[in-house]
Amino acid sequence: MTHTVEKIGGTSMSRFTEVLNNILLRKKNGSLFNRIFVVSAYSGVTDLLLEHKKTGDAGVYSCFAEAEKEDAWIDQLEKVKAKLLAINERMFTGQDLSSANTFISGRIADTERCMQNLHNLCSYGHFQLEEHLSTIREMLASIGEAHSAYNTVKLLHQNGLPARFVDLTGWKQEQSLPVDQMIEQHFKPLDPSKELLIVTGYTHCEEQLMRTFDRGYSEMTFAKIAALTNAREAVIHKEFHLSSADPKLVGEDNVVTIGMTNFDVADQLSNLGMEAIHPRAAREIRKSGIPIRIKNTFEPEHLGTVIDNNYCNPRPCVEIITGRKDAVGIEIFDQEMLGSPDHDIFISRLMKELKISIVNKEADANSITFYAVSTRKKINRVMRLIEKQYPSAEVSMHNIAIISAVGSDIKVKGILAKTISALSNADINILALHQSVRQVEMQCIVEQSDYEKGIKALHLALIEEENHGDVIRKIAV
Questions:
Q1: What order of strands is seen across the sheet that includes strand 260-261?
Q2: Is residue 316 within 8 Å of residue 410, measured between CB atoms?
Q3: How do strand 394-406 and strand 320-333 relate by DSSP bridges?
Q4: Distance between CA atoms of residues 146 and 201, nearest Å
Q5: Residue 108 to residue 449: CA distance in whole angstroms
Q6: Tell me, what's the pLDDT at 65?
Q7: How many of the other CB atoms lie within 10 Å of CB of 228?
Q8: pLDDT tens digits, residue range 310-367?
Q9: Beta bridge pairs of residue 398
Q10: How far apart are CA 245 and CA 239, in angstroms?
Q11: 313: helix, coil or strand?
């Protein structure tokens, strides 16, 4: 257990010169080796291959799946190719540029042939396109990760370092293997003490990672590798520190960089879309007893944030103020609901099927409200399906924001009163308030227009005025 497994996010990967200098060529414990790097696609590439993660704008996959215009996906794939070749142009010259272009152009050409053949095959009634869409989605996603991993190895070779491209995409592999077996088979002959291992963030396997984790597949690859290779530490390189709030909202001089926290806090952040790490990936690492360190790619001297299962802040306090500005409240009022859990069960399953993220929910005798995040298209669809299932119900939607106070232990006397007072003094109306018995998170539901003002107000009241940054300790690398 002498090596680390380190994941580099897409935004960081796009600034490849800084990644090279701040991470890849930077010694750890006196050596450049004993490090396995799992790399994401360059920023924006997966959005073009699948669909835009935030706006839902069409990518290659969504054009192919929806088939509103028969050849739209081909045009979109050409846009992807142009973007990837443009990235290569910025990174390489001469023979290195030629080989990088040949590699990714070959992947894209293979993909286009495969998709075109599938499209033709499914023109016959015996074959249904829907049965193959998940496989197409996986294949498309793998292109971005293969591109960035291949290029990273080339950069390291240019700098005279031994590096190996570990391709887990299963490209032209005859048989799918279980994910554990796939990873173990690839890593068994490798020695991270002698060469830097650069791994694709996508892993092709029997389980089809995207079916369960969708865009969180690279973090599952990272977690599986850390667990199966018995890593000393799992490191995530991001473009920001894990801080007490968004410095763009509350000011860089006012935020506290979190030195340590636990997996419970990480799960709360993930639920709000502020993913330190995908919760299922965190579970895989936590079970293996491996700590996670989150580092800022662009401040390599900083020790970052350690997520450890056994940590609890020595003094109860709020550690982070965060939230979602883009949420909706779907309210279902039905007098037939009284005493029955059917509405809750049906709607929860429906939202899971539609891949609508549920942040929280609340209920009283005859109504239930789901606080969710998704595209407007999916929200409208789920509301129609609820109305169809429960004709007597009144279904309404509210555009809301969620402001959350999170900490490993927020059992502080008077915290609820202080929260209400802070928001009231900022002239913010609280639409709903949630605090669990576990007391690791408190959520305030407010109007979307009050989101930024609310974040500032709670950060000032619960963090800045408490001056508790000194108890959020750091540990050495």
A1: 163-166, 196-200, 35-39, 4-8, 233-238, 292-296, 305-307, 260-261
A2: yes
A3: antiparallel
A4: 8
A5: 43
A6: 86
A7: 17
A8: 888 888 999 999 999 999 999 999 999 988 899 999 999 999 999 899 999 999 999 9
A9: 329
A10: 15
A11: coil
Mean pLDDT by 10 residues, the chain (477 residues): 90 94 91 96 96 86 81 93 97 96 97 89 67 88 97 97 96 89 96 96 92 86 95 93 91 90 89 75 88 93 90 90 95 92 95 92 94 93 96 96 94 92 96 90 96 97 75 41
Torsion of CA 415, 417, 422, 427, to 10 degrees: 150
Judged on CB neighbours under 10 Å (0-12, 13-18, 19+), 4 is buried
- Read off the amino acid at residue 436: S
Question: Among the CATH numbers 2.30.30.30, 3.30.2130.10, 3.40.630.30, 3.20.20.70, which is that of 320-471?
Answer: 3.30.2130.10
* Topology alike, domains 4-239 and 320-471: no
- Sign of the CA dihedral running 306, 309, 313, 317: positive
Inter-residue contact 57 to 48 (CB < 8 Å): no
Nearest partner of 447 among 423, 460, 431, judged by Cα: 431
Question: CA-CA distance, 426 to 411, in Å (whole number)?
Answer: 24
Q: Which of 175, 176, 209, 178 is nearest to 38 (CA)?
A: 209
Please write the tens of the pLDDT for every residue from 164-223: 999 999 998 888 899 999 999 999 999 999 999 999 999 999 998 888 788 889 999 999
Helix (H, G, I), strand (E, B) or coil at 108: helix
- The CATH number assigned to the domain with range 4-239 reads 3.40.1160.10
Six-digit token string for 23: 């991470």
Cα angle 348, 66, 57; round to 5? 75
Cα–Cα distance measured from residue 113 to residue 50, given in angstroms and rounded to the nearest whole number: 18
Domain ranges of the chain: 4-239, 320-471
Q: 328: helix, coil or strand? A: strand
Position 274, amino acid: M
